[in-house]
Design goal:
There is one protein chain. This protein is mostly beta strands. The chain is 14% helix and 36% strand. The chain has two helices and four strands, in the order βαββαβ. The strands form two sheets. It has a two-stranded antiparallel sheet. The radius of gyration is 12 Å and the shape is elongated.
Length: 72
């Protein structure tokens, strides 16, 4: 069974620490140039090709990053 993974960011929880940006093996995150409602520059998803390793999800100290898995 094939699977597709989609990283998601809750921008209201994100404080822009950049841990997900650093740990992602396929580099699909970057820090936004626009602040969220709390004044933090949050993480955005800029690419595709997520492998589903969930490093971003496990390492996020604010539980702002999560992976949605679609079964094809």
């Amino acid at each position: 069974m094939n699977r597709e993974f989609k990283p998601c960011v809750n921008i209201d929880r994100c404080k822009g620490c950049g841990i997900c940006v650093d740990v992602c093996p396929v580099k699909i995150f970057k820090i936004s140039t626009i602040p969220n409602s709390r004044g933090y520059y949050y993480t955005t998803v800029i690419g595709s090709g997520c492998t589903g390793c969930r490093l971003c999800e496990y390492m996020c100290p604010d539980f702002a990053v999560y992976i949605v898995e679609d079964k094809l």
